[in-house]
Specification:
Blueprint: E1 3-7, H1 11-22, E2 27-31, E3 40-41, E4 44-48, H2 53-60, E5 63-65, H3 70-83, E6 90-91, E7 96-97, E8 102-103, E9 108-109, E10 114-115, E11 120-121, E12 126-127, E13 132-133, E14 138-139, E15 144-145, E16 150-151, E17 156-157, E18 162-163, E19 168-169, E20 174-175, E21 180-181, E22 186-187, E23 195-198, E24 203-207
Parallel strand pairs: 1-2, 1-5, 2-4, 6-9, 7-10, 8-11, 9-12, 10-13, 11-14, 12-15, 13-16, 14-17, 15-18, 16-19, 17-20, 18-21, 19-22, 21-23
Antiparallel strand pairs: 3-4, 23-24
């Protein structure tokens, strides 16, 4: 029986868990440090805390991080790898992903999204519902593409950057690491990392404190 632990118990974690069931996992459990073991989040049961992960390895074997925060997701992904978990890539059956696109381990591709030929996604990337990533895009590790965001071809997005819901990024644009592109923003030129951008065309709102 294919079994999977999803780290987290929020709405996003349930979306990941639901997609895992649709891809053939028969047993899906949640790991959470807020809800107690035995609690349920939607149709899924919390089976333990993060401190239980090592002891759960023989029973479960595979795990994915269902947490939206990019830095926490990346750190947890590395922790799971160190423990010996298999880190699957989960792609909802309704997503369209070119066989010539590359997806890193621990990446999640949600329902209705599209990833075109030549695109390369790093580890722990989130491609949310209805987002599109066109040809030859290059996304660093733990990038988060929010629902309904659209990236033109040859776009580069740096590690741990968050593209907000409904944002549009013009063909060929480069966005640095640790940036936030706000909801509905229109990006028509390159953006530096470590900043928050909003508006159409996207402009700097503030600098971000580096972690």
């Amino acid at each position: 029986m294919k079994s999977l632990l999803v780290i987290g118990a929020s709405g996003h974690a349930r979306v990941v868990a639901d997609a895992a069931v649709e891809t053939g996992y028969r047993k899906v459990g949640l790991i959470d440090d807020v809800l107690p073991a035995g609690a349920v989040s939607g149709p899924f049961e919390v089976v333990g805390r993060s401190s239980d992960l090592e002891s759960r390895l023989p029973e479960w074997g595979e795990a994915i991080v269902g947490i939206g925060d990019n830095y926490r997701r990346l750190a947890l992904l590395e922790r799971l790898r160190t423990m010996g978990y298999i880190l699957p890539t989960i792609v909802h059956p309704s997503a369209v992903v070119s066989r010539h696109a590359g997806l890193g381990v621990g990446t999640f591709v949600a329902a209705g999204s599209m990833i075109a030929t030549g695109a390369s996604l790093g580890e722990g990337v989130l491609v949310n519902t209805g987002a599109t990533i066109d040809h030859d895009c290059d996304l660093g590790g733990a990038v988060h593409i929010s629902p309904g965001a659209h990236l033109g071809g040859n776009v580069s997005v740096g590690k741990c950057t968050w593209i907000g819901i409904g944002a549009v990024v013009k063909h060929g644009v480069q966005i640095g690491a640790d940036a936030i592109v706000g909801a509905g923003a229109v990006v028509v030129s390159d953006l530096l990392g470590g900043r928050t951008f909003v508006g159409s065309p996207a402009r700097v709102l503030r600098n971000r404190s580096h972690r």
